[in-house]
Amino acid sequence: ATERTLSIIKPDATRRNLTGKINAKFEDAGLRIVAQKRIQLTIAQAQQFYAVHSERPFFGELTEFMASAPVVVQVLEGEGAIAKNREVMGATNPADAAAGTIRAEFAESVGENSVHGSDAPETAREEIAFFFSGLELVG
Ligand code: CMP
């Protein structure tokens, strides 16, 4: 089925001017960018977005990193978009990511790993609604 997923191009990637190269990977895989904006998160917003990880030892590091430079938040649409996006991103830790994936090519570490993608339909809905109104989604 056609799905939508929430993608974030993270600060390590926007700093290195990799937005276009990462978007090309999504588009080459058949994903359509149906909404996109570049924003600067506050630490409070990063904490809210990643609230599910609030008990993890890396929560402080993660939320400070996400607020350290602009991010590009986007909605990707396509057949099986959630799984397809995760395939294109590669494993969370770039050391484990398959050749040709975004994280294998661009990520710097498990924390500074260039991209985020929703992990399931329910989280995709919640994460899209966190950043976008219905009016901003242009299929
Ligand atoms: P993401 O998909 O954005 O969701 C949670 C993030 O936590 C994950 O990608 C990683 O970038 C980050 N993360 C996971 N493990 C660690 C870790 N050990 N140290 C720092 N960040 C981590």
Automatic annotation (TrEMBL):
<keyword id="KW-0808">Transferase</keyword>
<feature type="binding site">
    <location>
        <position position="58"/>
    </location>
    <ligand>
        <name>ATP</name>
    </ligand>
</feature>
<keyword id="KW-0963">Cytoplasm</keyword>
<keyword id="KW-0597">Phosphoprotein</keyword>
<feature type="binding site">
    <location>
        <position position="86"/>
    </location>
    <ligand>
        <name>ATP</name>
    </ligand>
</feature>
<comment type="similarity">
    <text>Belongs to the NDK family.</text>
</comment>
<dbReference type="InterPro" id="IPR023005">
    <property type="entry name" value="Nucleoside_diP_kinase_AS"/>
</dbReference>
<keyword id="KW-0479">Metal-binding</keyword>
<keyword id="KW-0067">ATP-binding</keyword>
<feature type="domain" description="Nucleoside diphosphate kinase-like">
    <location>
        <begin position="2"/>
        <end position="139"/>
    </location>
</feature>
<protein>
    <recommendedName>
        <fullName>Nucleoside diphosphate kinase</fullName>
        <ecNumber>2.7.4.6</ecNumber>
    </recommendedName>
</protein>
<comment type="subunit">
    <text>Homotetramer.</text>
</comment>
<dbReference type="GO" id="GO:0005737">
    <property type="term" value="C:cytoplasm"/>
</dbReference>
<feature type="binding site">
    <location>
        <position position="10"/>
    </location>
    <ligand>
        <name>ATP</name>
    </ligand>
</feature>
<dbReference type="GO" id="GO:0046872">
    <property type="term" value="F:metal ion binding"/>
</dbReference>
<feature type="active site" description="Pros-phosphohistidine intermediate">
    <location>
        <position position="116"/>
    </location>
</feature>
<dbReference type="GO" id="GO:0006183">
    <property type="term" value="P:GTP biosynthetic process"/>
</dbReference>
<comment type="function">
    <text>Major role in the synthesis of nucleoside triphosphates other than ATP. The ATP gamma phosphate is transferred to the NDP beta phosphate via a ping-pong mechanism, using a phosphorylated active-site intermediate.</text>
</comment>
<dbReference type="GO" id="GO:0005524">
    <property type="term" value="F:ATP binding"/>
</dbReference>
<feature type="binding site">
    <location>
        <position position="92"/>
    </location>
    <ligand>
        <name>ATP</name>
    </ligand>
</feature>
<dbReference type="InterPro" id="IPR001564">
    <property type="entry name" value="Nucleoside_diP_kinase"/>
</dbReference>
<keyword id="KW-0418">Kinase</keyword>
<feature type="binding site">
    <location>
        <position position="103"/>
    </location>
    <ligand>
        <name>ATP</name>
    </ligand>
</feature>
<dbReference type="GO" id="GO:0004550">
    <property type="term" value="F:nucleoside diphosphate kinase activity"/>
</dbReference>
<dbReference type="GO" id="GO:0006241">
    <property type="term" value="P:CTP biosynthetic process"/>
</dbReference>
<dbReference type="GO" id="GO:0006228">
    <property type="term" value="P:UTP biosynthetic process"/>
</dbReference>
<dbReference type="InterPro" id="IPR034907">
    <property type="entry name" value="NDK-like_dom"/>
</dbReference>
<keyword id="KW-0547">Nucleotide-binding</keyword>
<keyword id="KW-0460">Magnesium</keyword>
<dbReference type="Pfam" id="PF00334">
    <property type="entry name" value="NDK"/>
</dbReference>
<keyword id="KW-0546">Nucleotide metabolism</keyword>
<feature type="binding site">
    <location>
        <position position="113"/>
    </location>
    <ligand>
        <name>ATP</name>
    </ligand>
</feature>
<dbReference type="InterPro" id="IPR036850">
    <property type="entry name" value="NDK-like_dom_sf"/>
</dbReference>
